[in-house]
Amino acid sequence: MTTTNPYTPFLSEIKAVIKHTDIEYTFRMTFSGDAKPGQFFEVSLPKFGEAPISISGIGENTVDLTIRRVGKVTAEIFENYVGDSLFLRGPYGNGFSIDNYIDKEIILIAGGTGLSPVKGITDYFSAHPKKTKGFTLIAGFKSPNDVLFKADFEKWKKNLNVILTVDTPIDGYCGKSGMVTEYIPSIPVKNIDDAIGIVVGPPMMMKCTIDELLKKGFKEANIWISQERKMCCGIGKCGHCKIDDTYICLDGPVFNYTKGKFLKD
C-alpha cells in the first residue's frame, strides 16, 4: 500500500511579484485546488528551511502569498523572481468561510500584515457588494510607508466603506490617523444582534478591538479572529503551535471568539 508523505512539498511557479514596501512583497504562485482566506501554506527552499505564509489572494489557478522579509527563509525567497519556483505545502488550517458572512453587516478590522489573511474576504464582498448588508473595512498601519495593497484599497473604496488609518503620519500625508479602535463607535450598524466582526492583527490590537466591538453590542458568537502563532509542520505533529489541547494549525488559525478567547500563551 502506497501512502503520500504529508511533508512532501510541490513545486509552484512564481507568476508575478508585487512590491508593497521595501520588506513586503506579494508572490503570485501557481496552485490548482481549493483554498480559503485565512488558510496558509508552508513555503520552503532547500537548504534554507520553510515558513508559514497566509493566503492573501485567490485567483484562477493561483494563490497570492504576501511575505515579509524577516529571517533566513524569507530573505532567500526575496531572491526569486517571475518564472522561478518555490516549494509549497498546503493549504493548511480551516480558514474563513465566506458563507458565514453573506447577507450580514460586517465590520472587518485589520492591523498591519493582519490584512493579508482577510484580504480575500474583502476582495469577495468588493466584487459582490449585494451579498452583504453593509461592509466596513478598518485597516491600520504604522505609517503611510507601511501600507499594503494600495491599489486594492482604491478598488475596495468603490463598493465598500473603507477606513485606512496610520499610527504615525508623515509630512504630506492627508489621510486618517489614529488607532483602529477610535473608528469603531461611529460605524452605523442596523442590526447589532446579527452583525459580524472580524479581527486580525497584533495581540494587543486584537484585544482592544474586540473590547470595542463587545462594548458596541456585538455578540461574542458573531466575532471571528485569526489566532496566528508560530507554526512549523502545519499538520499537528510537531506541537509548536499547541495551546492547551488546541493545535492552531489544525483547529485554526481562524476561530470563533467564543473559542478563541481562551487561547492564550
From TrEMBL:
<dbReference type="InterPro" id="IPR017938">
    <property type="entry name" value="Riboflavin_synthase-like_b-brl"/>
</dbReference>
<dbReference type="Pfam" id="PF10418">
    <property type="entry name" value="DHODB_Fe-S_bind"/>
</dbReference>
<dbReference type="InterPro" id="IPR001433">
    <property type="entry name" value="OxRdtase_FAD/NAD-bd"/>
</dbReference>
<dbReference type="InterPro" id="IPR014260">
    <property type="entry name" value="Sulphite_reductase_B"/>
</dbReference>
<dbReference type="InterPro" id="IPR050353">
    <property type="entry name" value="PyrK_electron_transfer"/>
</dbReference>
<feature type="domain" description="FAD-binding FR-type">
    <location>
        <begin position="4"/>
        <end position="98"/>
    </location>
</feature>
<dbReference type="InterPro" id="IPR012165">
    <property type="entry name" value="Cyt_c3_hydrogenase_gsu"/>
</dbReference>
<dbReference type="Pfam" id="PF00175">
    <property type="entry name" value="NAD_binding_1"/>
</dbReference>
<dbReference type="InterPro" id="IPR017927">
    <property type="entry name" value="FAD-bd_FR_type"/>
</dbReference>
<dbReference type="InterPro" id="IPR019480">
    <property type="entry name" value="Dihydroorotate_DH_Fe-S-bd"/>
</dbReference>
<dbReference type="InterPro" id="IPR039261">
    <property type="entry name" value="FNR_nucleotide-bd"/>
</dbReference>
<protein>
    <submittedName>
        <fullName>Anaerobic sulfite reductase subunit B</fullName>
    </submittedName>
</protein>
